[in-house]
């Protein structure tokens, strides 16, 4: 039997064990963790120095991974074309949250921000986990976004359990954030 302490830590193992990871997204490096692990989310928020009231984004390989967190029945049929034609990609949609979605994800809102990514690294991580990841930019609240692993390591050091040193997706701006019900753009 293998001693688990001798097994090299992977991003999957770090997230599965409640750790916070730094990983590439479409435009910037993100901080992520298991959205179902309250302690992991609280650790991520403490690292980022972000208040829980602001809510978080979930990033997934496919829409099916998000159904646990979204109240799909409340999304009008005429809005679905906008959503699904923008995915996979760098559009984050604010959708009605399922009643069971924890406040450590939604913050003060009755909605949840979600995205189906086209980034191959994130898709692979979400496939391995079988669920979405929390996705917030890898920077302290109010600081510049992190655009390299070296910057991330300088900013977070040992606070992150694992650094996924793979390339960013090539976008120059973080994802656009839109409200699915109203079309309001929160970040363009």
UniProtKB/TrEMBL annotation:
Residue intervals of the YrdC-like domain: 5-188
NCBIfam families: L-threonylcarbamoyladenylate synthase
Secretion signal, residue range per the UniProt entry: none
GO MF term list: ATP binding; double-stranded RNA binding; L-threonylcarbamoyladenylate synthase; tRNA binding
General function of this protein: Required for the formation of a threonylcarbamoyl group on adenosine at position 37 (t(6)A37) in tRNAs that read codons beginning with adenine. Catalyzes the conversion of L-threonine, HCO(3)(-)/CO(2) and ATP to give threonylcarbamoyl-AMP (TC-AMP) as the acyladenylate intermediate, with the release of diphosphate.
Location (main, coarse): cytoplasm
Keyword tags: ATP-binding, Cytoplasm, Nucleotide-binding, Nucleotidyltransferase, Transferase, tRNA processing
Designated name of the protein: Threonylcarbamoyl-AMP synthase
PANTHER family given in the database record: SUA5, THREONYLCARBAMOYL-AMP SYNTHASE
GO cellular component: cytoplasm
EC annotation from Swiss-Prot or TrEMBL: 2.7.7.87
């Amino acid at each position: 039997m293998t001693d688990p302490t001798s097994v090299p830590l992977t991003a999957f193992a770090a997230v599965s064990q409640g750790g916070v990871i730094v990983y590439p997204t479409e435009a910037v490096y993100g901080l992520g963790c298991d959205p179902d692990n309250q302690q992991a989310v609280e650790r991520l928020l403490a690292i980022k120095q972000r208040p829980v009231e602001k809510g978080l984004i979930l990033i997934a390989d496919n829409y099916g991974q998000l159904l646990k967190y979204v109240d799909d029945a409340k999304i009008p049929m005429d809005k679905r074309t906008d959503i699904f034609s923008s995915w996979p990609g760098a559009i984050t949609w604010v959708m009605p949250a399922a009643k069971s979605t924890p406040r450590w994800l939604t913050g003060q809102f009755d909605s949840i921000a979600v995205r189906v990514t086209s980034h191959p690294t994130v898709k692979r991580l979400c496939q391995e986990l079988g669920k979405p990841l929390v996705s917030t930019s890898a920077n302290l609240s109010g600081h510049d976004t992190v655009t390299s692993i070296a910057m991330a390591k300088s900013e977070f050091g040992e606070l992150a359990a694992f650094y996924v040193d793979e390339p960013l997706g090539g976008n120059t701006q973080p994802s656009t954030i839109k409200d699915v019900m109203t079309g309001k753009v929160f970040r363009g």
